Amino acid sequence: DSGVTQTPKHLITATGQRVTLRCSPRSGDLSVYWYQQSLDQGLQFLIQYYNGEERAKGNILERFSAQQFPDLHSELNLSSLELGDSALYFCASSVSSIDTEAFFGQGTRLTVV
Amino acid sequence: AQKITQTQPGMFVQEKEAVTLDCTYDTSDPSYGLFWYKQPSSGEMIFLIYQGSYDQQNATEGRYSLNFQKARKSANLVISASQLGDSAMYFCAMSGNQFYFGTGTSLTVIP
Q1: Residue/partner pairs of B10-13 with CB below 8 Å, 24 or more apart
Q2: Which end of chain A has the lower number of beta carbons within 10 A, N or C?
Q3: B98–A58: do the CB atoms touch at under 8 Å?
Q4: What mean pLDDT value characterizes chain B?
């Protein structure tokens, strides 16, 4: 158990809908990262938060947004879902924002039908 | 720009043998970290080992060791005494303003 909790584990939804993925980092970790893993794209970095503030942005679509709350948990919001958004979404956390290992949650498997 | 390259899409190894998974990286940062993760078929990403760019000695964690050659910019993972449970996807990663991941190597351990 990595100590990073992601909910839900599985999500099936229809095109055009909106979903929220939740992540609770390991105790003491200030940094949260979101990744998307699909078969054809590999692991794609989406966004990073550090202590409530956005730190780095990757290939995140405008239909996607995220935030980190004062208690350090984070949410990834995906809207106007398309079939191509079906993927495994990972959250990872680390103590700081660089030079420390990141621990991953078990992922949320999103299926858009 | 930072980049991680894993050139072996798939590898096979006999049970109890050692195997080396290749990873090269590119960065202009003087300080960085190198990591290996294992992703079994169940999907979770499991942290295996970490090497800091200023560490003099190669990192080891049980049967895992990281062969760090800074001048060559390589950070190969060595798994000794392979077990059937080692069959998985292995990702090399580097820290920067995000974690940069390679495309992964699929390892199959043959009984």
Answers
A1: B10/B105, B10/B106, B10/B107, B10/B108, B11/B105, B11/B106, B11/B107, B11/B108, B12/B107, B12/B108, B12/B109, B12/B110, B13/B79, B13/B82, B13/B107, B13/B108, B13/B109, B13/B110
A2: N
A3: yes
A4: 93
Q: Please check the confidence at residue A100 and state whether its pLDDT lies above 90.
A: no
- Contact with chain B for residue A67, Cβ under 8 A: no
**CB–CB contact B43 A97 (8 Å):** no
Confidence of residue A40 (pLDDT cuts 50, 70, 90): confident
Chain A residues 71-100 within an 8 A CB cutoff of chain B:
88, 90, 92, 97-100
In terms of pLDDT, which residue wins out, A19 or B33? A19
